[in-house]
Amino acid sequence: MALEITNISKSFDGLRVLDNITFKVEKNSFTCIIGESGCGKTTLLRIVSGLERADAGKVLFNGRKVEVNDVGFVFQDDRLLPWRTTLKNVAFGLEVRNDKKALEKAREVLKIVGLEGFENYYPKQLSGGMRQRVGIARALAINPKILLMDEPFAALDAQTRNRMQAELLEIWNKERKTVLFVTHNIDEAVYLADKIIVLSKRPARVVEEIEVELERPRDRTSLEFVGIRKRILELLSD
Amino acid sequence: MKLRIFAIFAFVLFWYCLVSSNFVELPYPHKVFFVFLHLLFNSEPVLGRTLIEHAIASIFRVLIASFVAFTIAIPLGIAMGWFERFNVFTSTIVEILRPIPPLAWIPLAYILFSKLTSPVQTAQLFIVFVGSFFPCLISVVDTARNTPLELIEMAKAFNADNRKILSSLVLPHSLQGIITGVRIGLGVGWMSIIAAEMLATSGAGLGYFIIVMYEVGGRTAEIISGMTLIGIIGYAMNWLLLKVEKLVMPWR
């Protein structure tokens, strides 16, 4: 029971972006993919979600192909529909699935992400952090088995970002999903992940898989935490 | 607000100076003002109608013709924005017809509809149609085409089909273009009807009123009264639609 990424390669116009990527994400675990900007992390996530086709290799979930209904996607830019309220944005994926209880379920998920009372706000009226929470709620609402997150906190300021990381872990505790989280922020990866996949510069290859076995909530200043950060920093600057 | 009052004050003052200079043939503002007030509700003897009646006749024509224009332009615009090949096909013709001013259609329009029972009315409606159709179409096509690709990709990531993307993304995104298109279309339609009314007898209408006042002997105060009402109505239509815009798009 896991998400298996096997020998994935991808080129754009002859430019090799992903080079034979292989790793495994355990069921209901939190995995971070880290690499420099532009190394192909997003492309990898898009291939897992089915938005993009790989040139070679395969992605399997529990031994079968990943289906659209397995995946909830959270984007770097929140990608909320500006003409929809918070509630209707969260209900979008459910509407697509013709869920009769779309609004009811959306309301429930909004509670989970701590946005109760903001149902009728438009995206423009929300802060960056709140908008990302709506984006997360939208992905959770369709009750996916896999949550794909593409640098969801990259556009937030440092404090909001730290708070959102803690909140994301709380949400994840309530709603266990298999999470694949892309970031270029080392601190973020060490704070969040059970396992960190370190990618090289383009063309991206898996440099190392690091298991993070620290207790949560993690102390960003502890020796072990800093030690893992240092290790990743060395790997990335090679 | 203070600045606005000052602007009107300055304009009237300038008008007085202009008349006093004897450089142009123009009545004093207060004279026009009283004629205007009088004609609003009292019949002018030559045509036997009040200014309000003339205005209603013109507005009525614009509303009918523009309504028909928008009913065609909005769905057509969405379709052109959605199907790229259809857009290439259609815009080829649109881009040639669009630069022709509505007024240039007037002679042809009177001939085109000469077999109908009310050729003048029909031709006038047609000219307004031409005037309001193209600005609306262009505006709708533009917003429909520019539905953000990131949002469409988001919808696809959530497994939305084309129908859902059209109804939940392209249509709401095009609303801005629809409203702007209606606003500009009505504005151009309003200009077109005044011109069209000047060129043929139709019994009533602000354009008709102005030209008749000219023909019976250059009654300047009456002419300016008619022009003033044209300006006020054009302004009011624009203002109203800007309010509607805020009402139907509360997310902006």
Give your account of this protein's structure.
The complex is a heterodimer of chains A (238) and B (252). By secondary structure, chain A is of the alpha/beta class. Chain A has one domain: Rossmann fold. In chain A, the strands form 2 sheets. Chain A has a 6-stranded mixed beta sheet with strand order 6-7-8-3-9-10, with helices on both faces. Chain A has a 4-stranded antiparallel beta sheet with strand order 2-1-4-5, covered by helices on one side. In chain A, strand 1 and strand 2 form a beta hairpin. In chain A, helix 4 crosses helix 5 and helix 7 packs across helix 8. The longest helix of chain A has 17 residues. The two termini of chain A are 34 Å apart. Chain B is mainly alpha-helical and 252 residues long. Chain B has 2 domains: 42 residues, no CATH class; 206 residues, Orthogonal Bundle (MetI-like fold), CATH 1.10.3720.10. Helices cover 78% and strands 0% of the residues of chain B. In chain B, helix 2 crosses helix 10 and helix 3 packs antiparallel against helix 8. The interface between A and B is medium-sized, with 23 and 21 residues.
CATH topology of the largest domain in chain B: MetI-like fold
In total, how many beta strands of chain A?
10
Strand content of chain A: 25-35%
What is the radius of gyration of chain A? Answer: 18 Å
How does CATH name the architecture of chain A? 3-Layer(aba) Sandwich
Residues in β-strands, percent of chain B: under 5%
Order of helices and strands of chain B: HHHHHHHHHH
